[in-house]
């Protein structure tokens, strides 16, 4: 764990710096390389980068994912349909939309978000259910140099817990133990004072171990050098809810799927790390230039707005008074005029510097893809709705690329959820789903349909068991208003053209075959059935 933490130092520094920028406290970061604001004067902290992150987060939430689970065999079609309706219910019970919202903020700011998908046995009054949450990447540690966390030798998750509560929960293990903190994870610079005096770091460690030719996921939870729980120490066979005897945890591991229950989603991936770069990392340089120029402009405007004078004094120019822009009189030696006062010369900012500021703003917007077109503003002369939509479609390529990476992570989340359902949903559970035409249905579901199934005997030979496997296709649950209007207009055009007339089925299918739009195959199937 100490080695993993040492290898993650640069990543942690970058993540903390990104959070400081997001909070518009970027002066601390800028002064590492610049000298603005060191005279105690005004310091410009503009929100151009803030606006980029807000806009990209809005694009991500507009494309909130929805799973469509497809079977690989005909006999699994019913189970796939049930899982497609049940998985969103399970995620909704976990407030996944809030988790996804939090994850997208972290992804846009620091470049990486992490989901944790586990089985929480304390849910539903002890029945247990799936738990999905957004993990703090500063509390996660993996083997340096790997891109896929499943290839890490160990995977650690640390968390601060109250000492007294921990001793109440594990009285036997922590009896007469001194809970001093031997490991402290890096923390964000919180606005609030976080008291950690009566807390101790609890460490969860996951690792793989081959047992009887099978790769198992083992787990150990400890504090300091005291083991609170370890799967390898659990040698007692277990009995599930149906009364069936199960092998001990030491032989089968924590989860049957054998994966670390964490999913990483990186914005701009880099080699040798599961983390990526965020918009703060790639846009902080033009943002710094904007703030430096705006600080100079504001100071220059202050000098020009308030007249200042040199006043005859006893020595040379008083530097302290000269640098104090709020002081209208600067004492100097010698006689300068009849009354001993002379205005301090002021040189306004040249227009070329204003052009440089605009150039920096445009650089930041072009680099991040947050151009005027993507935010709804178009050039003069472009008024047609189709032309505006085409420009927005072209300018939104970066957001769609980020959304696709989020969908890949979402597919992994759904895949782990299916495996947890396969392992733990032994007893019937009730769900409210949407049936045909949006009518509410109340269904009961168990994992019996997705358990290993016997393939029978063929030519006197036992064909063994097969495991129902599913493919996961992710689509956007919510689409923007313009997309919905365009889709509705397309359906009305098909209706007006007679595509749904049974006598015109062949012509309609020939025409649709040359077209390309969303859910085209579904429409062709409907028309073929009508024909």
Q: Estimate what percentage of residues fall within beta strands.
A: 15-25%
- Summed up, the helix count is 16
- Determine the structural class based on helices, strands and strand pairing: alpha+beta
- The proportion of residues forming helix, as a percent range, comes to 25-40%
Provide the gyration radius in Å. 31 Å
What does this structure look like?
- The chain is flat and about 120 Å long.
- The mean pLDDT is 83.
- The chain is 39% helix and 22% strand.
- The longest helix has 28 residues, at 397-424.
- A hairpin with a 5-residue loop joins strand 9 and strand 10.
- The protein is an alpha+beta fold and 531 residues long.
- It has 16 helices and 23 strands.
- The chain has a 5-stranded antiparallel sheet with strand order 4-5-6-7-8. It has a 3-stranded antiparallel sheet with strand order 3-2-11. Strands 15-14-16 form a 3-stranded mixed sheet.
Brief overview:
The protein has 531 residues and is an alpha+beta fold. Helix content is 39%, strand content 22%.
How are the SSEs placed, and which strands pair?
Layout: H1 2-7, H2 9-22, H3 27-30, H4 48-62, E1 65-71, H5 77-93, H6 96-110, E2 112-120, E3 129-135, E4 140-142, E5 154-162, H7 163-169, E6 199-211, E7 214-223, E8 226-230, E9 238-239, E10 245-246, H8 249-252, E11 262-266, E12 268-269, E13 276-277, H9 279-305, E14 309-313, H10 319-323, E15 329-333, E16 341-343, H11 351-368, H12 385-395, H13 397-424, E17 429-434, E18 440-445, E19 453-454, E20 457-458, E21 461-462, E22 465-466, E23 470-476, H14 481-496, H15 505-513, H16 520-530
């Amino acid at each position: 764990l100490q080695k993993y933490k040492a290898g993650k130092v640069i990543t942690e520094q970058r993540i903390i710096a990104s959070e400081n920028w997001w909070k518009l406290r970027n002066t601390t970061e800028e002064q590492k390389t610049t000298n603005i604001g060191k005279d105690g004067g005004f310091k410009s902290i503009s929100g151009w980068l803030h606006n980029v992150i807000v806009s990209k987060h809005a694009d991500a939430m507009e494309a909130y994912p929805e799973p469509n689970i497809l079977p690989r065999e005909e006999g699994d079609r019913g189970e796939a349909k049930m899982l497609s309706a049940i998985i969103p219910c399970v995620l909704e019970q976990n407030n996944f939309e809030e988790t996804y919202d939090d994850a997208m903020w972290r992804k846009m700011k620091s470049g990486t978000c992490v989901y944790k998908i586990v089985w929480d046995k304390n849910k539903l009054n002890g029945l247990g259910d799936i738990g999905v949450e957004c993990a703090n990447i500063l509390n996660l540690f993996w083997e340096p140099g790997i891109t896929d966390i499943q290839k890490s030798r160990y995977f650690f998750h640390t968390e601060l817990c109250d000492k007294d509560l921990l001793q109440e929960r594990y009285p036997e293990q922590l009896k007469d133990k001194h809970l001093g903190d031997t490991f402290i994870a890096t923390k964000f610079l919180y606005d609030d004072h976080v008291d950690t005096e009566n807390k101790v770091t609890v460490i969860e460690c996951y690792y793989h171990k081959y047992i009887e030719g099978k790769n198992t996921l083992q787990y150990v939870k400890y504090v300091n050098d005291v083991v609170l729980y370890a799967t390898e120490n659990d040698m007692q066979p277990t009995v599930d809810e149906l009364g069936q005897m199960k092998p001990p945890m030491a032989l089968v591991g924590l989860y049957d799927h054998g994966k670390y229950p964490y999913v990483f989603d990186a914005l701009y991936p880099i080699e040798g790390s599961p983390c990526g770069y965020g918009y703060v990392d790639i846009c902080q340089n033009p943002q710094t230039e904007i703030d430096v120029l705006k600080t100079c402009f504001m100071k220059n405007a202050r000098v020009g707005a308030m007249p200042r004078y040199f006043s005859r004094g006893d020595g040379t120019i008083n530097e302290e008074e000269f640098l104090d822009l709020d002081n209208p009189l600067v004492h100097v030696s010698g006689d300068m005029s009849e009354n001993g006062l002379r205005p301090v010369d002021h040189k306004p900012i040249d227009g070329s510097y204003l052009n440089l500021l605009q150039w920096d703003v445009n650089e930041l917007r072009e680099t991040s893809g947050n151009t005027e077109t993507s935010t709804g503003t178009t050039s003069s002369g472009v008024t047609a709705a189709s032309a505006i939509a085409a420009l927005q479609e072209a300018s939104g390529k970066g957001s769609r690329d980020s959304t696709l990476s989020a969908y890949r992570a979402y597919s992994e989340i759904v895949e782990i959820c299916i495996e947890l359902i396969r392992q733990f949903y032994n007893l019937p559970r009730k769900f409210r789903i949407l049936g045909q035409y949006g009518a509410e249905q109340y269904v009961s579901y168990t994992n019996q349909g997705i358990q290993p199934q016997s393939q029978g005997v063929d030519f006197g030979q036992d064909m063994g068991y097969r495991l129902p496997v599913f493919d996961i296709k992710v689509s956007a649950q919510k689409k923007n208003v313009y997309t919905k209007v365009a889709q509705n207009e397309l359906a009305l055009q098909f209706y007006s053209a007679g595509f749904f007339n049974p006598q015109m089925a062949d012509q309609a299918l020939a025409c649709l075959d040359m077209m390309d739009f969303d859910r085209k195959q579904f429409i062709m199937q409907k028309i073929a059935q009508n024909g």
